[in-house]
Specification:
By secondary structure, the protein is of the alpha/beta class. The chain has seven helices and eleven strands.
């Protein structure tokens, strides 16, 4: 049995102090893992439906097998694990800007960490996803100009509520076009958001991609005794032609 509350790790980072905490949920008796950046909660293992749906909705749009997938943002690993749970996925890179988060997984400090770190299909990449998205050589430092069948992004709270001002450019037409160039024809870009569907962002996606849609993901929020929602945007490139 774990203690009622434990701070597993705390580190200063260029983005602020980051901490990994574990607490006992009094209702279920389960351990809940939480990540905070400064005073702001980034993620919790109590709420993973949106992160899992990001992968499932994104990959559901893809035909074929032997899929190469890139994930922006490691977090507690639920988006990445959902990708590895799809038997069609051949390779997965997860780009995470905070080396401390990667270390938590490699050390097995979070529930999914050991499995992700040891899966031969998965590689955890320490890097700035937003900088790499605009880099002429692409998202994978080991393989310049590499393309993916799907890029799944879960870093910012939403396209309007970003963790750092430099992230905002990705959600504009030029940023999304650069990201789309990292996709195969008929490839998928999917984005998690904590906000309700944003018609303005939907219009930007429609300007860049061949098709796009916003999915509302509902899940129980036991802290509020109500149903909560996230949004998952899914956009697809042109079939057989690129952008």
């Amino acid at each position: 049995m774990s203690a009622r509350f434990e701070e597993i790790d705390w580190r200063p980072t260029p983005m602020g102090d980051i901490s990994l905490r574990r607490r006992r949920d009094p209702a279920s008796g389960d351990d809940v893992y939480e990540v905070k950046l400064g005073d702001e909660f980034l993620m919790s293992s109590l709420f993973t439906a949106g992160e899992i749906a990001l992968t499932q909705l994104g990959l559901a749009k893809l035909p074929g097998t032997d899929l190469d997938v890139a994930v922006g943002g490691l977090g507690l690993g639920y988006t990445a694990q959902a990708a590895l749970d799809d038997p069609r996925v051949r390779s997965l890179i997860v780009v995470e800007t905070l080396g401390e988060v990667i270390e938590w997984h490699e050390r097995g400090l979070v529930p999914l960490g050991a499995g992700l770190a040891s899966d031969p299909r998965c590689r955890l990449v320490h890097g700035d996803f937003f900088a790499l998205a605009g880099d002429p050589h692409g998202l994978d430092p080991q393989t310049p100009d590499r393309r993916f069948h799907a890029i799944l992004l879960d870093v910012d709270h939403s396209p309007r509520h970003v963790l750092h001002p430099r992230h905002a450019a990705l959600y504009q037409p030029a940023g999304l076009r650069a990201l789309a160039e990292r996709l195969h024809p008929d490839g998928v870009f999917a984005l998690w958001s904590n906000d309700a569907p944003d018609e303005q962002f939907n219009a930007v996606l429609a300007e860049v991609f061949a098709e796009s849609e916003a999915h509302v993901v509902e899940f129980d929020n036991p802290l509020q005794g109500a149903t909560a929602t996230n949004t998952v945007y899914v956009a697809r490139t042109e079939t057989g032609t690129g952008l």
